[in-house]
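Exercise 4. Each item below gives a protein and its sequence. For each, produce the structure-token representation.

Item: P1 family peptidase (Terrilactibacillus laevilacticus).
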Amino acid sequence: MTTFNNITDVPGIKVGNVEAVPGYSGCTVLLLDKGTICGVDVRGAAPGTRETELLAPMNLVEEVHGICLSGGSAYGLDAASGVMQYLEEQDIGLDVEICKVPIVPAAVLFDLPVGDPTARPTKEMGYQAAKRAIRGQLKMGNIGAGCGATVGKIAGQERAMKGGLGYASRICPNGLIVGAAVAVNAVGEIRNPSTGEIIAGVRDDDGQIKECLHWMMNEKPIALLPGTNTTIGVVASNAIMTKAEVNKVASMAHDGLARTIYPVHTMHDGDTLFAVATSKVNATVDLVGTLTAEVLAEAVLNAIHSAESIPGFPSHRDLLKYRK
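Answer:
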């Protein structure tokens, strides 16, 4: 099996991306094979979501047909309608006898201050992202939902750095495959959990990176609006799981964010993670959840390492320019 180190290594998943450039926003769409079970865990205090309630274990629908991650704040939820349109044209959806209704959960992040605030992901962009969905090598960084993503905003947008979209995967000897896709747009800084190094965060007047905790404790607080950040993503495996079990994996996956983003799940973030299982290989919830957290952390780092600078927001690649 060819490995691309992204979520499409999990059989049954395709990914498509569309950007609104130079508006600096975009959407990322995952198309899922029949029989894919989905769960979700929302940890941020200001989420923007669609169709998340139906993913609760006690509710009826188990299978989903696509997932949409989008910029544009609440406006970006329109992109999911385009994914529904595309799937309906492919005769894919929940069969309700008179028609098939595609089930497409979605989550959005806030990127309106970056570029043109009117350049939001639309229904047409969601449709095009679904149409472009592939299994194979995918670009990371300023792509899809990560196009306008930024990090390190605890001291305001003018001190922030560029975030982005990242993927990662792990293939185990027993045939278990775990993958992740994440759009990193956090109010906090990004740390490498192996070294403790801050690889993207808040810049001071000299262009040096200072810990978010320094700004929270010692500097004048910035009046951030709730929901003006948010990290959103999808974790996936080819494990055989129930709806309750895949929801537990979504919960465990947030450990990957906690290892790389500081602070995380704040009042100003709407952090949301979907988890899907394509039901091919036997594996325990503990194994899948543990690996998922590791792979998600890798995807966060890949997003930051792949990001490119845009006006007003230097990337990790420029980090040495701002350190003495």
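Check: Residues 285-306 form the longest helix (22 residues).
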